[in-house]
Structures are given as C-alpha cells and as structure tokens.
Design a protein that fits this description.
By secondary structure, the protein is mainly beta. The protein starts with 6 loop residues before the first helix and ends in a 10-residue tail after the last strand. It contains two helices and seven strands.
C-alpha cells in the first residue's frame, strides 16, 4: 500500500524551507551600508539660499543658514542610495542646537570610494558660533529602494 503524505504537510514543510532559506539570505538592497563622514566644515549659505526662518511652536524666528561640507567614504563596491546623515551640532557654548534630531538630512548617491557631500541646515540666529560638528556618519542602501506607493 502506498502511503502518501497529506498536502497540508507538504505545504507546511515547503513554507518552513522557504522561511529558513530567507533567514540566511538577504538581498543586497536590504543591507545597510555604513558611510564614514570626515573632513567636515561649514560655511554660510550663499544669499539665494540664506533667507528663511526656524519655526517652533507656531512662532517664526530668524535663522542662519549653513552648508556643511565633507567627504563620504563608501567602503562597499556598490553605489549607495539615499544615505541618511546622522550627527550632533553644538554651538559655541557647547549646547546641542538640534537636541531632538540626530538625522540631519541625506546624501542621494554615494559612489564607491571617497566623494564630496554637502548638507544645508538652518539654525536659530541667536545661537553663538562657531559650531562644532560631532559624531557624523551616514547609512544607506546598496540599491534603489523604491517606495511602497510610487506616484
């Protein structure tokens, strides 16, 4: 007599096999790539970018605009897209000027190796300079990450 296993057992076994295989393999687009940021500096924005205000609690305050520049080192051999920039910025009194934010912006494309980047920030005009840029780093995906609902 031929003993066939029920189809439910086969479906469960196949599901477990697929789950186990996906546990050990993650597509490269899902793996975050750490980007080293160094040689950081900042300058005042050019006049066409410098106008603006910082809004807090519905009140508009005068703001200073700065462009942060530096170098980004992508250690992988793949282009990284939409790398989020994280860091802390302190004023001349060593006060964190963005205490509730560590994500400061992003770099759209980081090719393999070392490349230049820049980031625009606005800070309240009453904060004393010079600014200190600390703990800057970036993380991104080695592949295009498409939105769930493309426009």
């Amino acid at each position: 007599m031929l003993n066939l296993r029920p189809p439910k057992f086969l479906a469960v076994a196949l599901s477990l096999l697929i789950a186990a295989a996906s546990w050990f393999y993650a597509p490269s687009a899902l793996a975050l790539t750490e980007i080293k940021l160094f040689d950081l500096a900042y300058n005042n924005c050019p006049p066409e970018l410098a106008e603006g205000a910082v809004t807090s609690g519905g009140n508009s305050l005068a703001a200073n605009c700065f462009i942060i520049t530096g170098k980004a080192e992508n250690p992988s051999n793949k282009t990284v897209y939409d790398a989020d920039i994280f860091g802390r910025i302190y004023d001349a009194n060593n006060n964190n000027i963005l205490p509730n934010r560590t994500r400061l912006g992003n770099i759209e494309v980081v090719p393999p190796g070392v490349s230049n980047f820049e980031l625009r920030i606005s800070v309240a005009a009453n904060l004393p300079t010079p600014l200190s840029l600390k703990n800057f780093k970036a993380r991104g995906f080695a592949g295009n990450v498409s939105p769930l609902f493309p426009e």
